[in-house]
Amino acid sequence: MSKILLIDDEPDILEFLKYNLENEGYQVITGTDGQQALEKIAENPDLIVLDIMMPKLDGFEVMERIRSDKRYKDIPVIFLTAKAGEAHEIKGLELGASDYIQKPISPKKLIARVKANLKKSELISGKKDKLPEKITFGPIEIDRKTFTVLVDGEKIYFPRKEFEILFFLLSSPGRVFNREVLLKEIWGNDVYVVDRTVDVHVRKIREKLGKYADMIETIKGVGYKVKSVE
Prior knowledge:
The chain is an alpha/beta fold. The protein has 8 helices and 12 strands. The protein has helices spanning 11-23, 34-40, 59-67, 86-94, 107-126, 160-171, 179-187, 195-209; strands at residues 3-7, 27-31, 47-51, 77-81, 99-102, 134-137, 140-143, 148-151, 154-156, 177-178, 216-219, 223-226.
């Protein structure tokens, strides 16, 4: 039975979503603010459904703390928000959110997204024994076991999706991957995200790579590839 941590400061919404998730067989832990989210994550949920606009700590602040803790950095997080707007969504994705749902929430949509994100998380975990744990390519060392990236020996923090994209590209240097392939491999078939999401994540990866940003080459109209550093 998968365990869901559900955080929302509106009691009616919280109980409504909890009821529907429990009817699907999930174990649900609830909280009503950002502080409770950080306290209850110690119960090791398999997935977090996190409201953004909350007292004490908002969802973005909670997300930053989760992703900075190596114990919880791989837990998929679905953001809930009443705010519309691309900038708001992009911020959540940049922080490492797995998905994003705008209120009012359809229980069927939420359950579908929960199932898709849990499935993706399980697939990633299941592949760990088949893929190399560590890749060294030029100045970059990337280790999936410790979830670390070293650039010229300096440790650089990458949120989960950025880490997965970088690892995926470095696994096949020289090969061009279009956005559809990257979306499928990193987010899965059942999670709807737009092509722009890949571009946002690649931009953030390049920023962190600094003088080696050009290692990730854009193939206009196609996608991305890793090229050697001269």
